[in-house]
Write a structure and sequence with these properties.
This protein is an alpha/beta fold.
Length: about 200
């Protein structure tokens, strides 16, 4: 099965692109969804996070206080390293489990922090959803109702646009119109089908 790793910075429009691939019946596995499942109440990962960052990251109902954790992580690089060390191995282990269950000619694996994790996960193609940083900032401010300063801090903690472009095999321009975006996705979909069926996947 052809495995396409889809990546992009916060606010780049990954969810929109995923919906377009999903409309073409392409299976999508999103590591952000996996990460949220791993920190639900009662999950071992949540206990590890509490041990690392304290009980202040937990709401009264036992759920994770994401805003508090985000504030801690993006104000201290060491905290971010701690978070990554706990979560990344668990995320990629679960990703493997879910991939083995798929029956498809190709799939999209959404890995937003593909560059940052330095994980040698076996992908056949890397697809970048790209847009200028200023567009990212505005989208994040509007979507998450945070300040421009907070949005810039999150973006600064991620890989640069240049680093992502260097890693990508394919790039989708997400500053385009919805029609052009759909055209880009359809073109790549056809390309991935050809790659998969022709069995030209690198070893």
């Amino acid at each position: 099965m052809l495995k396409v790793g889809l990546t992009g910075g916060i606010g780049s429009g990954k969810s929109t692109v995923c919906r377009l691939f999903s409309d073409l019946n392409v299976p999508i596995i999103d590591t952000d969804v996996i990460a949220r499942q791993l920190v639900e109440p009662g999950q071992p990962a949540l206990s590890q996070l509490v041990a690392a960052f304290g009980a202040t990251i937990i709401h009264q109902d036992g759920s994770l206080n994401r805003a508090m954790l985000r504030q801690l992580v993006f104000s201290d690089a060491q905290h971010k390293q701690q978070l990554d060390a706990i979560m990344h191995p668990l995320i990629f282990k679960e990703l493997d489990v879910q991939v083995t269950r798929l029956q498809a000619i190709y799939c999209i694996l959404v890995i937003p922090l593909l560059v940052e994790t330095h994980n040698n996960y076996a992908l056949h193609r890397v697809l970048l959803v790209d847009c200028p940083e200023q567009v990212q900032i505005q989208r994040v401010v509007n979507r998450d109702e945070i300040s421009q300063k907070q949005a810039m801090a999150i973006i600064a903690a991620q890989a640069s646009r240049r680093q992502r472009l260097a890693l990508a095999d394919d790039v989708i321009d997400n500053t385009a119109t919805p029609e052009h975006l759909a055209e880009q996705v359809k073109r790549l979909h056809n390309s991935y089908l050809l790659l998969a069926t022709a069995r030209t996947i690198p070893a």
